[in-house]
Every structure is written in C-alpha cells, then in structure tokens.
Amino acid sequence: MKQARLGNLKNIAKITLLGVLLISLFLGYKVFNVDFDYDFEAFFSKTDPETEFFDVHRKRFETDNDFIFIALINDESIFDQDYLQKVEGFCADLSKDSLVENVQSLTGMEEFVKTPFSAATFSRPYLRIDDPSKYENDSIRVYSHPEISNLFIDKTGKALLVNVKHREYLSKEKCDFLKQSIDGLLEKYEFHDYKYAGRTIGMGYYVDKMVYETGLFIALSFGLVIIFLVVAFRSLWGLWLPLTIVGMSMLWIVGFMGAVNEPINLILTVLPSIIFVVAMSDVMHLVSKFLEELRGGKSKVEAVKVAYKEVGKATLLTSLTTAVGFLTLLFVDMQPVQAFGIFTAIGVLLAFVLAYSLLPAMLILVKAPKISTKKNTDTVWYKVLHPSFTWMIRKRKQLLIGFFILLGISIYGSTQVIADYYLLEDLKKDNPLRKDYEYFDTNFMGLRPFEMAVEAKGDAKITDYEVLTEINKVDSFLIHSYGLKQTMSLASVLKLANRTEHSGQAKYYEFPDQEDAEAFINRIEKFDKKGQLSIMLDSTKKYSRISSTLGDIGMIKIEKANESLNAFITNEVNTDIVKFQLTGTGHLLDRNMSNLSRNLFWGLGLAVAIVSLLMGFLFRSIKMVIIAMIPNILPLVMLGAMLGFAGVELKVSTALVFTISFGIAVDDTIHFMSKLKIELNKGKSLMFALRRTFLSTGRAIVLTTLILAAGFLMLICSDFLGTFYIGLLISCTLIFALIADLFFLPVLLMYFYSPKKKSKAKN
Question: Which of 14, 412, 538, 699 has the most crowded Cβ, counting Cβ within 10 A?
Fold first, then answer.
C-alpha cells in the first residue's frame, strides 16, 4: 500500500515537472520580447486635469523638452577665429541631419537694426567671424544684449551654447542615432572639450544603463544564491535544487512581461532581485522544515507532507501579504510605479506556485541529502538559538523598555523627513551625465523646462495692448524675482523690436508704448515668412505662452517660487482679461511628486489593514493581531528615522521602500506566529510553544532574512541613486524586522497574551 502511494506521488511529481517545463519553454521564448523603456512623462498622472491641459497646450504650440544643449568649450575665449569657424561649420553640418529641425548658435545669428537715416531695417551678424579686428566691438554689443549673453555664452566667456531643436518624441533608436551624429561631428571638428545634455541624451544613457544593471543584478543574484546555499547546506543537493526554483521564478515573471509586452522601466530593474529574494524565502522555509522532519526520523514522503502542511499555509499567507503590499502601489497615479506594483505582485505569486509545485515534486523524485542524518540538537543553529532564547527570557523587561524607547526616538526622527525632488535625483553626484547637466545649470540657463500658458479671456485677444501689458508684468517678474535669466514670450519679442527700432541701443530693450507695440505686431505678422511667431501665438490669437529653462533647483524651491508667482499674478495682474497657468513637463513632475507621499501613505495604510485582516483570519484573535503588527510597524518608523536623521529626501525611490519593506518584513512574523499557533493547538504552554517556535522557525527566519538583506544589498552596486537607496534601506529595514520578530514579538506575547487552555493532543 505504501509503495503504491509512493508510486502515485512520483507519477504526480513527474507530471508536475513536465507541466512546469512546458510553461518554462513558452515563457523562456517570450523573454526575447522584453524591451527597456525610459520615459519620464510616464510619471505624469493620467487622471490629473493638468496633464490633459498640457497635452492640449503643446499640440497648440510645441513640446518643451525636445532639445539638446551642446556647450563647445575653448581654452581661452570664444573670440578666437579658428574656434568660431569650427563652431560655424559644426552647426552647419548638424542642421543637415534629418532628425534636426533647427540649430541655434551665436555664430549663425543676426541682429536686426533700423537706423535713423533710413526707414529700412537691415541685419548684421552678432559675430563677424572673418574679421577678428571687429571682435572687441562685437563682444561689447553681445554682452549688452541679455537675451543673447544669458542664453548662448557661458559666464566664463569660454564656451558657446548650441541649441539643437530635434523632431518630437524620438524613439530610443533615433536618440542613439542623433547622438552618434553629434559625436561624429564633434570628432570631425576636433573639439577637445565639450558637454551636451537633454532628454535625448538622458534617454539613451538611462536605457543603456538599465539593460546593463538588469543583467548585473541577475548575475549577482545567482552568485549570492550559490554562496548562501553552499554555506547553509554544504551539499550539491542544497545548491542545484533551490537554484532551479529561483531561476524558474525569474524566468517566469520576465517571460510573462514579454508575453504581455510590458517593457522594463527604471523602477522595474530591481524586479529580478525582488523575485530572487522572495523565491529564496519560500524555498528556504520549505526546505528547512523538510530537513527538520527528516532529522526527526520521518521518511522522505512524510517529511514533504509535514513541511507542505505546516509551512505551506503560512507561506501562502506571506505571499498574499507581500503581493498586497506591492498592489497598494496602484494608489500612486504614476504608470511606472503601478506597473512595478502589478508585475512584482504577480512575480511573488508565481514564485509561490513554483515553490509549492516544482519543489515538492523534486524533493520526492531526488534522493534525500546526507545532511538530513544530522540531529537537530547537533546543528550550529540550535547551539546559537537556544542560548539566545534563554538570554531573551532573562532580559525581557529591559528589552521591552528598550524597544519602546527606540520607538519614541524613531517617531521623532521620522518627523524630520523632508519631501523633495530633483530631475536628476537618480544619478549619483559623481556621475558624468549629472555633472554635464549641472554644468549647464551653473554656466548657462539650465535644462529644466519652464512653461506658462497664457489665455486671453472674453472678447480680448493676446495682441491687445492691455493683454500684452499684463504679459509683460509677468515676464518681468519671472526674470527679476522668479529666477529665470531670459524668456521666450511676446513681451520679449516686443522688447527686441523696440531696440531694433532705436538703432540697436541696449537702453531701448524695454516694453514699448501702445502705438509702437501695435506697429511692431503688425510688422512681425507681415514679415514672419518662417512662421516663427506661431510658437508663441496661436492662429486664433487667444492663446500664447511664456517659456524658458532654469536650473534643477529642487521641488521645494520651485514650489516657493511658484507661490510667489501666483501671489504676484493675483495681486498685480488684471486677471479679468488674461489668464496665466503654469504647465509643462517640469511642473507636472512636481505635482506628481508632491502627491506621492500622500498616495503612498494611504496605500501603506491599506496594506496594513488588509494584512491585519488576513492575520485575523489566521489567528482568530484581535489581541494576537495587534501584538503581531507592532513589531512590523517599528521597522517602518525606524526607516523613517534613518531618512530623517541622515537628511535623505523623501522621493519616489525612498518612498517605495516603506511599502516594499512592510510587504516583505511581515512574512517572518507570519511564519513565527503560524508555528506558535501550531504548538499552542497541541496544548503546549505559551513559554514552551515560544521556545519550540524560536528554535524551529528562528533558523528559517534568520537564514531567509540574511538572504533577503544580502539580495537587496546588491542593489547598492547601481549607478542610480534610487536603486541604491532601495537596496540599502530595505536591507536595513529587514534586519530591524528580524530583531523585532526574534526579541520584541516574543516579549510582547509573554506580557500581553494569555492563550486559552487546550487539552493536550493525543499521541
């Protein structure tokens, strides 16, 4: 009878192996469909009315971030004939590229001037490149024109800016092609020092780095698995069997993403590491219990059954709670974050399916390892955990007081956390790309887009002098008080026209009177052959824009500047005839980041509530649930204290850590409490049940936490600060959670939980 049952189990195991193999072959094929994507506009809220407003605004005019800034640096000064000729040739060749729409540089720009001796307007170049004797006069004239010197010459006078406007919404491949063209021209003209930046450059860099780091983390994950398994099991069996489960888990989730055509975004690069640690946790709990039962004298089949029964329910619950933690990221109205939550949750559940289908099948079919013959009391784990439990019993009062003092300090530290956001927050300070961006922030106007929509209200039109006057008020405030160095607006166009009318004299770069303004507008509309006015004024003359760029100064400073701008508009501008509204990519990112903390707070609160309900269903005791949740809240508060005391800003990456940490850290508590419940149901006393749980589950909890922490710690190898912080902070939080589960949770149970008396189970 026993042989027949064993034969049936082996047949089921073989069928399971065949089914898993077929699914793996299919998903392995789909892995090749997986693509990588970096689109920061994906972080825009799709339900925010301001996102829809911006879509309409840029269709009316143009996008605000499809440009590349190139700084061509000379050793001494820009006023060098050889250097200027190379810049001129570079710009001429670049303008021929099919992906380039316009190239602006001081070497190709002209100034329009009207003399008092003639009604005609003539043009003259800002730089007379072929006549070095004119360089001194050209220099004086250029530096007297703020709309030129602020935009196209760096503050040291050693570099010229080339502003390249390229075609909108370039793909990754076209971004790479354009970058290669620029690199080729830079090499052709032998510029020994240059810097370039822009969305196109950033996209190429980010995607290439994401591909590299995804492969790196997978390789590091497997390397770490091998080291831990060799140390833990010291056998070939203990190496290849768990490695198979972990490898299959990674293959399944990446293949699933390929099957549904979901690209890997910047946040999803950590997915392989998360699935690795989650799958290893499932495997270690099942294998540890399996070996424990073998050492207790059970047969291989009976050991699998007991491990499956006692650990399976708890592992299912931990998988559900972890998945719930990730699914709460759906509260964040950002597509990359939502995709991260959805596919990580799916990956967690797929890892559970493999751990409790493929792993039991393999345990039945393969020979039991030699280490299973060793007695439980002879293991290193018993020799470490037994005295640790005894020490905890003796020091329980001090431990309880210490943990509550730690909780108070952590709560205070959490109040010091500051929420801020920078466009380049994911790049380390020594990153070459970040240094290039900072160069433009320091030496030119910066690369962060500034965009403001202008709408004439009622019967008014943008070209009405009353409306233009209000636009000029806002334009002047932006330059003198907001922090912009120059703007592109109808007000700035009229200032240029006024200076042109007065022989190019710098003192006339000011807003004209009504008669001149109307004449200038009519003249510009009449002679605007290239349609350049259309990027500032729509065909109905009801809409206009004020655009510029500024440095990456951070969300907090931007919000303060916006508050002062809105206050100025409210108090000083006639809003009955014209409406001003901030918009643009930078503004939308700020809005989403400012809402991030609130959304994650509600999501985390929901996760705590759902996990509490699941634990309530398991333990059927409100008091037990409250006691169990306290050690899982403490690590989160300690995490907040780490951020607060270390001065690390709350942003996308660091905010995600709270949800990820809670979803994973609660697993150890569930395993501990599940084993405790089993012991209590046998009629054991609380102290005896705690001791058995501490010795039995403690080994798996410590081992899985070390693997989890080490797995996440690998992420500190990333060049992206967000990934770096996710790895470092989650590792620390998991260690906090381990200490809380082993030395705080049992103490709370000793003081505050009195189990109902049950009759002892019969042998």
Answer: 699
What's the mean pLDDT in 402-419?
Answer: 87
- Cβ-based neighbour number of residue 19 at 10 Å: 13
- Which single residue is written with the structure tokens 């689109």? 39
Q: Which two tokens stand for residue 511?
A: 């807003």
Q: What's the rounded Cα separation, in Å, for the pair 678 and 672?
A: 10
Q: pLDDT, tens digit, for every residue of 150-167?
A: 788 888 889 999 999 998
Burial class (CB in 10 A: 0-12, 13-18, 19+), 275: buried
Round to the nearest angstrom and report the end-to-end CA distance of the chain: 23
The strand ranges marked E within 513-660 are 543-550, 578-583
pLDDT at residue 464 in the model: 92
According to DSSP, the residues that pair with 548 across neighbouring strands are 450
Tokens of 280: 């290893």
Backbone angles phi, psi at 135, to 5 degrees: -60, -35
pTM to 2 decimal places:
0.75
680 touches 686 (CB < 8 A): yes
CB 181 within 8 A of CB 94: yes
Cα distances from 310 to residues 285, 348, 464, 674, in angstroms, run: 10, 20, 79, 8
Q: CA of 492: how far to CAs of 108, 140, 162, 344, 608, in Å?
A: 20, 21, 21, 50, 55
Q: What percent of the chain has pLDDT over 70?
A: 92
Within a 13 Å sphere around the CA of 571, how many CA atoms are in the beta-carbon half?
7
SS3 of 565, please? helix
Cβ–Cβ contacts within 10 Å for residue 149, how many? 18
Residue 647 backbone zone (phi > 0: left; psi -120 to 50: alpha; other: beta): left
Rounded CA gap, 91 and 564, in Å? Answer: 39
pLDDT at 763 over 50: no
Q: Which of 548, 540, 536 is nearest to 584 (CA)?
A: 548
In whole numbers, what is the pLDDT of the chain averaged over residues? 83
pLDDT mean over 290-294: 79
